[in-house]
Amino acid sequence: MKNRKISAIIKNEIEKSIKNKWFVILNLLLLIVTVIGLNFNNLKALLKQNEVDFSNQMLIYIEDNDDLVYEELRDTFKDNEEVKVEKKDSVDEYKNDELGNDVILLEVERSDVDYLTASITTQETISASYIQKIENVLNTTKDRIVSEDEEISYGQLEKIKDNVNVNRVILSENIDTNEITSIVQLISNYLIFFILLLCLNKIANTISQEKMSKSIEYILTSITTKEYIISKVLSMCLIVVLQFVFMLAYLLIAVMISSLFTLSSVNIDGAQAIDISGVMSLKLVGYIAITFVFMCLTTFLQGVIQSVMSAKTTNIQEAGNATIFLVTLNLVLYTIVTVMISPLKSASVIAYIVSVLPIASMYFIPAMFVIGQANIFQVIISLIILVASIPLSLILAQKPFKNAILDYSPKKNKKIEGIEKIIATREYQERMIDRKESSKKGLTIGLAVILLIILQVVGGLLISAFISPISQKITFISQDSIYLILMCIVFVLSIYIPYLILKAYLPREEKKQEISKEEKKVSIVKCIKYIIVSIPIISVIQMICSFAVEKIGLGADVSSSIGLFNYSGKLATILLFIQIAILPAIFEELFVRKGVFGILRKKGAIFAVIVSALVFATIHMNISQFIFAFLVGIVFGIVREKTGKLYPTMILHFLNNGIAVIEVLFYDYMTFMEIFTYGIIAINAIGFCILIYMLYKKVMELKDKESIQKLKEELDYRKVKLNIIENLFVFKDYTFLVAVILSATIFTVVEKML
Amino acid sequence: MLEIKNLSKYFGIKKAVDNVSFKVEDGHIVGVLGKNGAGKSTIFRMILNILEPDEGEVLYNGKKIDYSISDKIGYLPEVGSLIDSYTVYEQCMYYGKMKSMKSEDIKNNMFELLEQFGIVEYANMKIKELSKGNKQKIQFIISLLHNPELLILDEPFSGLDPVSVEYFKKIILQLKEQGKTIVFSSHIMSQVEMLCEEVIIIDKGKIILNCNLEEIKQEYASKTLDITGKIADSTLKQIAIFGKIEKKGKDRYLVNLANKERIGDVFRLLYTSDITKFSVLNVSLNDIFLDKVGTAYEE
User: Fold this and answer.
1) Which of A31, A79, A520, A545 has the highest CB neighbour count under 10 A?
2) Which residue among B52, B67, B77 sits closest to A223, beta carbon to beta carbon?
3) Which residues from A are below 8 Å from B81, CB to CB?
4) Higher pLDDT, A342 or A228
5) Cα(A618)–Cα(A450) distance, integer angstroms
6) Does ipTM come in above 0.90?
7) C-alpha angle with apex A683: A680 to A689, nearest 5 degrees?
């Protein structure tokens, strides 16, 4: 009885979405795009062919000193007036960029091993049909030569040429299968994202819609909440699956059309068809199966979570926002997997633990399986946990879903008793304004960070695209130097432009009062003190981080960072030093310690320090550096707060980066390095001593009662809690967090792809 | 028989429904009257098992209401529950299926009801093209589609013009004759007054009045007499012994009796006077409400 109701909902839902005109339009578009996309080359060739008809002739220059192919080729194109076959003694002279679009260079030679070797040289935009015809001629010629040389008949030759039915057993993967596996992995990851995004969005929309039209109330009188959630999630998943079936159909149609093209132009006997049965290794089949199972289960689980989250929404905009959490979670998990799981190193214990958790397992298990790091127990345990989590989630989801779905009030605080009185106070209203301001600040910072990262990524891409034409024009400096100069420019612009956005929101500075020389001196001494004290702290952080990162399995890619220093020439070295040590010290500090810190300072020093450190870590755009940059960011933030000046952190930043560069650049100069290392150790030691002295002084200060009282007041639990809650409104609208997380993710993905 | 026992529901700190108990006999109409936000819809939702009560229970024919008998209950939600993009037929199909009906039955019942309401032409129109009143009619039709035993109507008259209200009234009375049990709510007093035998008045989640309308009206009404005619002063003085006299017009008097047993005595006293009208006054529900609660019921 109940099952019939569930199926009625599913049927209704699917019918509704298929009868929709947008569904039809979307699918028509998809069909057209797929067909055109897959037949793009054919279409181009078709257009080219038409062009040929009206314009130039096609010239085939053939270098055929043994007279093997020339005659037959001429016979083939005898009826085709546009094609002219010419014999040359050598075609090498034509082999340059100025080769016309209508010329095909063909070199044919007798070979003792292969009977016949040939090479074809053309421009990129040449009709494939000519090439195929030439290849056909070559093949028949080869057959002729073989039958003559070996004295066997054509019939025998055909038999010899027949493929052997080979039972393929793969012991070790070769490059081909690896390549295909990685392609499959990439495609399946995109598919998972696409499916998830579609499913979650659809669930959010349909539930929100039913809630808004209040039809949910009627339906819930007939079926239980659990059945409702199941039917909704299932129907949405089915719709998405259906869409994929349609897309597969389009793909098939497109492939069929494409093969029609090939068949009409040249007669080939199926040799062009790609035979994928050979490359489909057992591992790949397992990968696809595991991915599919995990994807189905996880999508369902996430659908249940999504339905609870969208039950709380009261309008369509909120319904859209409700998907942000899960989408972000998925992106983060994907990023973590790409960083943590690598065929070059064995997975850490943490990776194994995380991989059995539901949702995370969808990304971890297939990725670990494909590189042979997953063991059978891990797969089974994660599967059991995932399967068990589905009924559990359904049971847990019922109550919050029911409570939320019947609550039509847009604001939750309506229920609080006496809220009218509270609202009428000035403090309350001021706090509300404050919250709005906070979320605006969060939005500004988030947007600035996104802009920064996009500018850097786009800038990097532009540089790598234009580096070779530019270096051809400019010859008086090396390509490395040009590259570095461009990198510097991109770096400066990509930070300074977002900084300008932040600057617009910086509180106006009060006019500086005249400072006496004495005060100036005190402040400088203070700054120097803080700089020296910070150095050993940073060193310790660095040691701990490099140790921790290794343990977690987020191993830094040492090879790529060494590659960075592969530059030769004095100019390049100086530029490298500027790019890594000087520019970040100036501009990153300007962005983070002046921009972000300045905007957030009003919200409290601790909060400003933490958030600015978070931003600082994010703009490093490197997961393995994240923790280090975050901790160092906190130290820098404290220095900035205590000294009230920008230059101490700039100096610290410069020292930190500069030392690293010098260590790499002067690696071969033994004496210098020795002196340099001793110098650093000495500075560290001095800083450490001062640090201990300062701590001692602080402890002594705390001994007297007054300062203890003062400290207690500062650390009043309620006040701190209230402050934190108010401050968290910076993260309202998610914009800030999304900016931080998404941009890091995007960068990691882009980096992987490049 | 629908039995509601000590029902309570909290929303956060606020107690939306406070210890509500009442009974509805089979084939009776009960009107639940209360201002907006009094807790009517919450009670109905708990009857329908959409909301879980924090305390108390709901019994139908001695059995706790759950999804096994939900097919026997018809529900007209207070707020529009129709999906805009559907046609009337699709909507009926969808909701009918939710009540485990067969497609054929849904179609037949739908057309019967549409004919009864005189809106057959709307069968293939989209919900969003209908007026508010017509939407309400469609909702009513949907709640009747599966021929339920128990009907829960939450604000059935909202958005209707007076003619339609009369029409709805007629149909509800017809349903009562068919032996259906009906519980309906309204925030408009006159609507409750004209339809039901029993009335429950709810304020701030509590029942403040639960009675048979005729009985309570008689109880109140029989105490007030409306007399028109020339009455001698001596007679008036005699009547004044039984109750307070209020002169309304030239020859019109309202007599508020302390005891309704005295009507006959007053009548006997007047036999010599020249009386043109003698009636026992009808009291409106509002007067009763005023008497019970102390403040007038605002609409």
Assistant:
1) A545
2) B67
3) 213-218
4) A228
5) 10
6) no
7) 140
